[in-house]
């Protein structure tokens, strides 16, 4: 049972839980402190017979920055499982069957500074960077749920308003739907950067992660979920990523599904209170079914 306890930044008031119209509102309510609470509650409810069950709880604090020193480090150190429950996707009682891969990187341009009144004596790194960005952006005119996507999310350059900038950089976030698409986009973006004398630094690459719903332990979860929830879970491809891809590297099937909620990373983040109780029942039922040690 795995959850991360780190969150993105928020005003102080977001860290006080509000209950309104059946919703629990607060930073991390959906992404994903609810899961940590559920896992601990299940362990407490099984406390008198805990030795009869073979399961573990992993709580990490670096998922929002890649999970390298959390889940990845633990798996690299030898921790294993036959299946992982990781409710960091699969919104509104769906199960994630796959998530897009991503390439997070930095475009870096260098130039030559000069006085702002004599721009011809310098080489403006910002111009070089902007030209590359515009060419790359032209590759992504239409962006939607089922497309590859590209965004420039941070940008900076120059040191003074009256000086030609000799340095500029921007971070980018590329999300891709399959490996062939990634290979093609990587080649084209690299070529555009080279033609504009812009360097590319890779910050992180995350491969596409898929969950086989026919895996016996996944199918068992879906069966229990249908009993508890009253109807089958839907299937969904997630747009974001999670620590699931670290488990995938070790061929550990990962189940990503969670109750109704929304506005993750926003100031009105929330989870349905009734759904939270239902999800707790689901996890307990699944643990009792699959993790009980047979003597």
SSE arrangement:
Elements: E1 2-4, E2 18-20, E3 23-25, H1 29-45, E4 58-60, H2 71-76, E5 84-85, E6 94-99, E7 101-110, H3 125-137, E8 149-157, E9 167-176, H4 179-195, E10 198-206, E11 209-210, H5 216-229, E12 234-238, H6 244-248, E13 254-255, E14 261-262, E15 270-272, H7 273-290
Parallel strand pairs: 1-4, 5-13, 6-12
Antiparallel strand pairs: 2-3, 3-15, 6-11, 7-9, 7-10, 8-9, 14-15
Number of strands: 15
N→C terminal distance: 23 Å
**Helical content class:** 25-40%
Rg calc = 23 Å
Q: Find the structural class using helix and strand composition.
A: alpha+beta
Uncertain spans: none
Summed over residues and divided by their number, the pLDDT gives a mean of 95
Task: Summarize it.
With about 300 residues, the protein is of the alpha+beta class. Helices cover about 30% and strands about 25% of the residues. Helix 1 (about 30-45) packs across helix 7 (about 275-290) and helix 5 packs across helix 7.
